[in-house]
UniProtKB/TrEMBL annotation:
The keyword Signal applies. It is found in: Membrane. InterPro entries: Leu-rich_rpt, LRR_dom_sf, RLP_Defense. Signal peptide: none annotated. GO terms for molecular function: kinase activity. Keywords: Glycoprotein, Kinase, Leucine-rich repeat, Membrane, Receptor, Repeat, Signal, Transferase. GO terms for cellular component: membrane. Pfam families: LRR_1 (PF00560). Its main location: membrane. It comes from Olea europaea subsp. europaea. This is LRR receptor-like serine threonine- kinase GSO1.
Length: 190
């Protein structure tokens, strides 16, 4: 495979097995889409060499084990979708990312400055929504925290996300008043 390859889309096939470790040699790759396949196993550190990745779509597979902490070292990452897999650990603090995720949303998520879409719905996340999410100025497509067990008040800092098009906090245990800082956002706390 060419080491100059920038985009690789293999979505919606019947691919199975692990992600080949040789993918780690694709240092120029900025998009990897393996979604909607039957890929299994853990995400090995061998593939962590893809430092230019800005789009990593691994959703709707059967990946298992821990979400790797090395994902947090991919500084260009703007779109990450790990939903509908079999990951079974807490969200690593190094990353800040529909699985069986539990624990709290890490405050260190604020380090993902280029993140423009964040979906961590349908999990078992607890605790409050960290106000630090309000510093992710590039979030523009969606912030989706639905179907978790988040509690407490909606942080007023979410009103700082001026580019955000969709905010969904439904089906949690949020309480208190809707912050006026959210302006025209359509917020549901049900």
């Amino acid at each position: 495979m060419s080491k100059n390859l920038k985009r690789l889309r293999l979505a919606q096939n019947l691919l199975s097995g692990n992600v080949p470790s040789e993918f780690g040699q694709l240092m120029m790759l900025n998009l990897l889409d393996l979604s909607f396949n039957n890929l299994t196993g853990e995400l090995a550190p061998d593939i962590s060499g893809m430092e230019k990745l800005s789009h990593l779509l691994l959703n709707n597979n059967q990946f298992s084990g821990s979400i790797p902490t090395w994902l947090g070292s991919i500084h260009e990452l703007g779109e990450l979708d790990l939903s509908s897999n079999n990951f079974n650990e807490t969200v690593p603090a190094e990353l800040g990312t529909n699985n069986n995720l539990s624990g709290t949303i890490p405050q260190t998520l604020q380090q993902c400055k280029k993140l423009y879409e964040l979906r961590i719905s349908i999990n078992s996340l607890t605790g409050t929504i960290p106000p630090e999410i309000g510093t992710l100025a590039e979030l523009q497509v969606i912030l989706d925290l639905t179907f978790n067990q988040l509690s407490g008040e909606i942080p007023s800092s979410l009103g700082n996300l001026e580019k955000l098009e969709r905010l969904n906090l439904s089906f949690n245990q949020l309480e208190g008043k809707v912050p006026t800082s959210l302006g025209n956002y359509q917020v549901s706390t049900g």
